[in-house]
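Lab notebook, design round three. We kept the backbone fixed and only want residue identities now. Task for the bench partner: fill in a sequence for the structure below.
Input structure tokens:
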């Protein structure tokens, strides 16, 4: 690990040293790679015009781990991803870098063999885990006193910032865990692995060592930013059976909760659409990844400049579709700019998903002027000044395909006709009022 840190630092030192060596040379004495062309006259501009993005420190870090890096719009099932020995953690793993998450947050899968354990580690970035398969325990400590809790398939837990921790498999079968981190944010800022992984600072405001730190909390509170349902808990024993309060912001009967874990900036929520109902399309920028926890379904995502009727207007070739089942995932906005995305649960089960955003990316947590008034645009229809496409204004081919898919699955659509009736001026419309106002 120390050697990897030195290699990363050496790359940056070498780049700086090369610039220092060349700064006193005439530009025509430089090699072709370093040769700078000054514009002549007033009709040309300096620079290449087009260029390749250089690797960031986190990109270098991933490459040096010598494990697979899975990229794309989505993954149908993380259980099917290739794994290779990962020296740093002591077992097998793979990175996942869905389009649109680059530099915003990181994701990986790690396998713990039966009766095995991951290496002890600590780091200056936030980390959370969803247990895909298996059961076991986690050990966490900062001052020598070890806190231990058990996990199973469906458990969700957060590691306190820079606390020592070890993941242990208690069964004879392999366990598979999906991790989300703020490693890209930290590494791209600091550019020094040794500082990230070998720092002695103890964040007592993140992990105070109390006995009940990893005791699940059931009390529902109001998110102080948007007034949505939240729980302050550092462990969710089972996301598949986790009680979700009514929300209605995405579809009729939609339920949702925000677990706020380990005082992290890493933002997430868990939501569920009723059987036979699908979400309104809405748009926002990159960061969010939707992870399928229960049921199965598909997601459409397309750049907002294509409009609200991409299929009917012959632009279907520019729409991305990802099909998934537990534990699959999709990037809601896989490229720059705002993207519409719409989620469909198919079959006879409700569709339960968790959205992971990383730190400082979600609406209400992005940088801006303190106290500036914002709207919950994703929950407000376009005709009312928001970013959501009401059902009566969506591409009609979307409903048609959903109903046909449900019939093939031996299930029924519960998207009633009244959802698609355009309201008259001044007429009350469903799913428009906010109870917290």
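Proposed sequence:
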């Amino acid at each position: 690990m120390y050697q990897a840190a030195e290699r990363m630092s050496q790359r940056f030192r070498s780049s700086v040293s090369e610039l220092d060596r060349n700064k006193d040379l005439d530009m025509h004495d430089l090699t072709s790679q370093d040769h700078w062309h000054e514009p002549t006259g007033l009709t040309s501009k300096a620079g290449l015009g087009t260029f390749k993005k250089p690797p960031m420190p986190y990109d270098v870090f991933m490459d040096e781990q010598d494990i697979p890096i899975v990229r794309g719009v989505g993954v149908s099932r993380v259980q099917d991803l290739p794994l290779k020995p990962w020296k740093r953690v002591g077992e097998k793993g793979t990175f996942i870098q869905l389009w649109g998450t680059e530099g915003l947050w990181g994701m990986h899968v790690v396998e713990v063999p039966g009766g095995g354990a991951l290496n002890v580690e600590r780091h200056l970035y936030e980390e959370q885990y969803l247990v895909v398969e298996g059961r076991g325990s986690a050990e966490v400590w900062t001052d020598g006193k070890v806190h231990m809790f058990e996990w199973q398939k469906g458990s969700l837990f957060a590691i306190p910032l820079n606390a020592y921790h070890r993941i242990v498999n208690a069964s004879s079968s392999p366990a598979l865990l999906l991790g989300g981190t703020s490693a890209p944010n930290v590494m791209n800022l600091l550019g020094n692995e040794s500082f990230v992984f070998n720092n002695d600072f103890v964040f007592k405001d993140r992990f105070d060592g109390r006995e009940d730190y990893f005791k699940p909390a059931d009390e529902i509170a109001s998110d102080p930013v948007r007034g949505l349902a939240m729980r302050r808990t550092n462990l969710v024993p089972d996301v598949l059976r986790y009680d979700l309060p009514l929300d209605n912001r995405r579809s009729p009967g939609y339920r949702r909760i925000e677990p706020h874990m380990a005082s992290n900036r890493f933002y997430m929520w868990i939501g569920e659409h009723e059987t036979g109902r699908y979400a309104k399309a809405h748009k926002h920028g990159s960061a969010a990844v939707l992870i399928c926890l229960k049921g199965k379904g598909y997601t459409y995502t397309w750049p907002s400049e294509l409009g609200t009727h991409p299929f009917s207007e012959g632009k279907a070739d520019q729409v991305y579709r990802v099909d998934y089942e537990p534990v699959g995932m999709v990037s809601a906005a896989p490229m720059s700019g705002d993207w519409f995305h719409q989620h469909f649960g198919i079959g006879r089960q409700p569709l339960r998903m968790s959205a992971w955003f990383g730190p400082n990316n979600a609406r209400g947590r992005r940088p801006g002027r303190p106290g500036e008034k914002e709207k919950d645009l994703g929950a407000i229809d376009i005709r009312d000044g928001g970013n959501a496409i009401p059902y009566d204004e969506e591409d009609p081919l979307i409903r048609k395909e959903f109903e046909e898919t449900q019939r093939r699955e031996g299930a029924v659509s519960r998207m009633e006709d009244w959802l698609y009736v355009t309201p008259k001026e001044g007429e009350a419309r469903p799913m428009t009022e906010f109870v917290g106002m």
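Keep this in mind before ordering anything: The first helix runs from residue 2 to 22.
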